[in-house]
């Protein structure tokens, strides 16, 4: 997978298929805030995503308080958003919808 930074146009294109995700105003990351029914659901989501991230060797920056998980994704090695961020965001949306 290419580790090249995506153009903002390419990111916007990818975001159109990623409900809830937005491009940070500096254009260097994508983020989404997830809401769950309770802490157990939120933590279960994080546990599932942690295993995906480890398999991808691509890790989120995230914050959790109770039923909320705020996620920011970018590729440190590229200094911006790459296909790896889009792939992990897609996996996170799938994990979050599994709990619905
Ligand atoms: C050494 C290790 O493979 C690298 O630091 C990996 C780990 N996880 C990573 N996660 C993210 N989000 N960006 C990276 O560039 C990255 N690089």
TrEMBL record:
<comment type="similarity">
    <text>Belongs to the pterin-4-alpha-carbinolamine dehydratase family.</text>
</comment>
<dbReference type="InterPro" id="IPR001533">
    <property type="entry name" value="Pterin_deHydtase"/>
</dbReference>
<dbReference type="Pfam" id="PF01329">
    <property type="entry name" value="Pterin_4a"/>
</dbReference>
<protein>
    <recommendedName>
        <fullName>Putative pterin-4-alpha-carbinolamine dehydratase</fullName>
        <ecNumber>4.2.1.96</ecNumber>
    </recommendedName>
</protein>
<keyword id="KW-0456">Lyase</keyword>
<dbReference type="InterPro" id="IPR036428">
    <property type="entry name" value="PCD_sf"/>
</dbReference>
